[in-house]
Inverse folding.
């Protein structure tokens, strides 16, 4: 049984889980436009965020994509904060060593 690729707009967890750069198809899905339209905008230098051409392929930096969507910072949830604060930042160190 094969699973089809996701369609429709991206959810916030999907957006926040993107790698440093994405392909045009992923960027167009995040922006809610068709990939063909995205390529036309790139050729006209009118794509709403920076695009890097690497050989014959295009890559869209995720930071620019999120900025174009109006997302300037990644959210910090209380659960994440507890995970980050519960353990010392370096193995072998204790919190008292850092004060």
């Amino acid at each position: 049984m094969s699973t089809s690729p996701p369609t429709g707009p991206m959810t916030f967890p999907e957006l926040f889980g993107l790698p440093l750069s994405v392909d045009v198809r992923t960027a167009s899905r995040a922006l809610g436009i068709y990939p063909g339209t995205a390529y036309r905008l790139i050729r006209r230098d009118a794509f709403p965020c920076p695009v890097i051409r690497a050989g014959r392929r295009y890559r869209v930096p995720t930071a620019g994509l999120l900025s174009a969507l109006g997302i300037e910072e990644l959210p910090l949830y209380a659960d994440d904060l507890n995970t980050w604060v519960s353990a010392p930042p370096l193995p072998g160190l204790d919190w008292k060593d850092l004060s």
Summary: The CA atoms of residues 22 and 60 lie 5 Å apart.
